[in-house]
Structure formats: structure tokens, C-alpha cells
Amino acid sequence: MSTSIKTEAYIYDEQRNLVYYLEEQDNDGDNIVDDRQTETSTYDGQGNLVYYLIEQDDNADGVVDSRWTESNTYNLAWGHKKL
Questions:
Q1: Which of 38, 64, 40, 65 has the alpha carbon at shortest distance from 51?
Q2: Ramachandran sector of residue 69 (left: φ over 0; alpha: ψ -120 to 50; beta: rest)
Q3: Of 44 and 78, which is predicted with more confidence?
Q4: What are the helix and strand counts (H, E) for the chain?
Q5: Neighbours of 20 (CB within 10 A)
Q6: Which candidate, 79, 19, 67, places its Cα nearest to that of 43?
């Protein structure tokens, strides 16, 4: 019977916004990372999320196999602000 091990790390900015997340998965319990995912977030001066990036390395070989991005803009005149 094999054991799967997941390791996670989180980094927050001074405003307690999550700016970096790392997840590594050892699928067979041999202490070798089998896949890795990172998430990076960027916020504006109001604390609104303006950029979000997810990168997936399916076999943990250092090469990004998939990437997803999200960019947001806010019209602060319309009252968009972090609560």
C-alpha cells in the first residue's frame, strides 16, 4: 500500500493577502515530488486582486505543463473596493 503526501506553503503580504501558494504532491510515498502547482496573486493599492497566475508542473520536472491567468480591472468610481 502506497502513501500519498501533499505539502503546501503559503506566503501573505502585509495586508494579509495571499500572494504565493505552493503545492507539491508525492503520489506514491517515495519522498520524490511527482507534481507541483504554484499560484501567484498581485493586488492593487486598494487590496483588489489584479492578477492571478496558476502554473502546473504535472511531473515535477521543472517545466510548466499548463498555465492559467486572470487579470482584473476595477473602476473605483463605481465603488469597487476591498471590504
A1: 40
A2: beta
A3: 44
A4: 0, 5
A5: 14
A6: 19
How buried is 36 (Cβ within 10 angstroms: 0-12 exposed, 13-18 middle, 19+ buried)? buried
Q: How many Cβ atoms sit within 10 Å of the Cβ of residue 41?
A: 19
What average pLDDT is seen over the chain? 91
Q: Which residues, 6+ apart, have CB-to-CB distance to 76 below 8 Å?
A: 46
Note the maximum CA span of the chain.
58
Across 1-83, the runs of DSSP E, i.e. the strands, are: 5-12, 18-26, 35-43, 49-57, 66-71
